[in-house]
Amino acid sequence: MVCTKCGKEMRKGYLFASKDGAFSFANEVPGVFEKADKADGFIEITSLKPGHRTSIAAECCEECRLLVIGY
């Protein structure tokens, strides 16, 4: 994949989180005591994996600090 900012080839790899983590997207980050799935615009990117490291395939442009993921 080519970077949309600089036009150079992006490096393939994985975006990963600490153990038991899951990736989500929302309009704002919910507070510590709020249920994440109730946040405005919530989208589950990866599910919770107790005892495992969560990861998702991604491509990275280190020069532009741009990350692209598909879910």
From TrEMBL:
InterPro entries: DUF6487 (IPR045504). Residues 3-70 form the DUF6487 domain. It comes from the Bacteria. This is DUF6487 domain-containing protein.
